[in-house]
Design a protein that fits this description.
The chain is an all-alpha fold and 134 residues long. It has a domain of 92 residues. Helix content is 58%, strand content 0%. It is built from five helices and no strands. α2 crosses α3 and α3 runs antiparallel to α4. The radius of gyration is 22 Å and the shape is globular. The chain starts with a helix and ends in an 11-residue tail after the last helix.
């Protein structure tokens, strides 16, 4: 009976190891942000990077964007692990402004126009996705 239990345990462990991606196949945070950046061209304007769709400089921009945003996300994750139940300090508006500044720094580095602040775009009358407000 013990032999059968060990066989079942060994088989289950082997199946689990085969189903778990190896570190060689796991995507780093920087790679994940790079892929997200490339896909952000499909977000509706003024969000994401829709103005860069088809732009030859997009990959260079994403190479700048990815490590900066990955580092920021890792810092926030470390803060939340050290402070369970607490969000990182700052307001949503401050976070959005910081993200826009980071995006525009990378855009400037590769010779792209500045990104539009979604809050200012909506105030200027650019149509925002979602239900109409009364």
């Amino acid at each position: 009976m013990v032999g059968r239990s060990l066989l079942v345990l060994a088989s289950s462990t082997a199946a689990l190891l085969l189903a778990t991606p190896s570190p060689a196949h796991a995507q780093s945070p920087t790679e994940a942000y790079y892929d997200m950046c490339l896909k952000a061209v499909d977000f509706p304007a003024p969000f994401g990077e829709s103005d860069l769709k088809g732009n030859a400089k997009l990959p260079d921009y994403c190479k700048c964007f990815a490590p900066v945003f990955a580092a920021r996300a890792e810092k926030a994750a470390r803060y939340m692990q050290a402070n369970p139940g607490k969000a990182p300090p700052g307001t949503v508006e401050q976070s959005n402004a910081e993200e826009l500044a980071m995006r525009n720094t990378c855009r400037k580095q590769v010779g792209l126009p500045a990104a539009v602040d979604p809050n200012k775009a909506s105030a200027a009358g650019q149509q925002m996705p979602g239900p109409k407000r009364k």
